[in-house]
Design brief:
Distance between the termini: 41 Å
Structural class: alpha+beta
Helix content: 10-25%
CATH superfamily of one domain: tt1808, chain A
Strand order of the largest sheet: 3-6-9-10-11-12
CATH class of one domain: Alpha Beta
CATH architecture of one domain: Alpha-Beta Complex
Number of helices: 4
Radius of gyration: 16 Å
């Protein structure tokens, strides 16, 4: 067990098998084998948005064969080999919220494969990761819908996968109702969330 993150050579690539041996307190994600430290600083607005969205989605999904999960929850994304062997998995992320409709993807350690819908909430220090690195990663892995929430502007960018590429479906803020592309009948009032 590695108990101190400083024992890791952060220029090295790691696998999910390595990740399982880490017992340090810092939250991290692996993106294509490289360690990204999760911002442990959370603020009240971030938590309120995450709770509000999770609650709305959970209530809706109770009637569906889909599961809602909130961070910290490991999502193991597979590379082009699609190997599920721990030594062949180089990406483990912890989205703020994810919805998984294929029960076969859920195991005791989290989700293996792409969730149907992922929501990430920006906070200081993670904007590039969420808007660029994870955007590309989720697109490559076939996430059907990706929301980027910007608390500072009470705004959400909604991306939908079409022909293997994310398309900006909507960008909304203020007193608006937004529905999911995966679940069009799910209506979320943004004013209540923000």
């Amino acid at each position: 067990m590695v108990m101190d993150i400083n024992e890791l050579d952060l220029s090295k690539r790691f696998t999910y098998a390595d990740y399982l041996t880490w017992g340090f307190k810092e939250r991290v994600e692996l993106i294509k084998g490289y360690v990204y430290k999760k911002d442990t600083w959370t603020f009240d607005l971030h938590q309120r948005i995450a709770t509000g969205l999770s609650s709305e989605i959970y209530q809706y999904c109770k009637k569906k064969p889909c599961q809602v999960r909130a961070a910290p929850y490991d999502v193991r994304l597979l590379d082009s080999k699609k190997s599920t062997d721990d030594n062949q998995i180089y990406t483990v992320v912890q989205p703020d919220i994810c919805v998984i409709c294929d029960a076969a993807k859920i195991d005791r350690r989290g989700c293996i494969g792409a969730p149907d819908w992922i929501i990430e909430i920006l906070s200081p220090g993670n904007t590039k990761t969420e808007m660029q690195d994870k955007y590309n990663l989720y697109e490559e892995n076939g996430v059907k819908e990706y929301w980027i929430v910007q608390p500072e502007y009470a705004a959400i960018q909604q991306f939908v996968l079409k022909e293997g590429k994310f398309q900006l479906e909507k960008m909304v803020s203020g007193n608006t109702i937004l529905s999911s592309a995966c679940f069009p009948e799910l209506m979320i009032e943004l004013e209540a969330i923000f």
